[in-house]
Structure formats: C-alpha cells, structure tokens
Amino acid sequence: MMTYSLVCADGHDPETITVEAMGDEEAMTKMMVKSKAHLDVNHSEMASMTEEQSRAFISSHWTKT
Ligand SMILES: [Zn+2]
Prior knowledge:
The chain has about 60 residues and is α+β, with helices and mostly antiparallel strands.
C-alpha cells in the first residue's frame, strides 16, 4: 500500500487530502472522489474542469509515500 497525499493551499489554509492505494489507478479513483468534495466546497470555480483536467491536476500535484 502506498499513501498518496495532495496538499491544497489555494486560497485557504493548507489542507491535505490523502488516500491509500495499491497503485496509481486505484489512487486516482479514490482521489477523484475525495478531491471533488473539497473542490465543491472550496473551489467552485474549478467545477467546470473536465475529468481529464482534474486527473492531470491531481497526478501532477500528489506525492507518494
Ligand atoms: Zn483547496
């Protein structure tokens, strides 16, 4: 298992979204769900991002440990 962490500090105090997964695909699926909740509340301006854009954003910002 790896832990994937996505830190968002865009306009608010840093908030870390973490998921545990066996690999990138599983992590992405989980991260899409968790990050969507965060985006809906904090970044409604990003609601128009396509799923592809969201995936690109997540995979370029997450760290694996
Ligand atoms: Zn945020």
